[in-house]
Prior knowledge:
single chain; NMB0488-like fold
Amino acid sequence: xxxxxxxxxxxxxxxxxxxxxxxxxxxxxxxxxxxxxxxxxxxxxxxxxxxxxxxxxxxxxxxxxxxxxxxxxxxxxxxxxxxxxxxxxxxxxxxxxxxxxxxxxxxxxxxxxxxxxxxxxxxxxxxxxxxxxxxxxxxxxxxxxxxx
Length: 148
């Protein structure tokens, strides 16, 4: 139960998945969940391996920018059956990117667990927002190397 007058801290977040079979990336926009935290929302943006260096930073930063601008619509919420979710997790590595309240960018490696992902020990990398466009491609690749 949320107390009256309580304002949750909202941290813009984007999920990035690497398809280990087809070798492409899916940048999954998120929005603040009506229940707290973040919610994957809308269609992911595919980034091909050959476009990674030139595109991943722009797509990720644009998704973070749109985090608070997108209005919740239940028809756009990502939903998979249990089997579809398990198949997705088996096929994809996960990294999340968040814009911290300090303004810095945190890139976090994920580890598969059951039908989802959780953080990897020593899996967080924090970079300055001012250099994010230049540093994000290498930082995201490093996080995917840490992802399990």
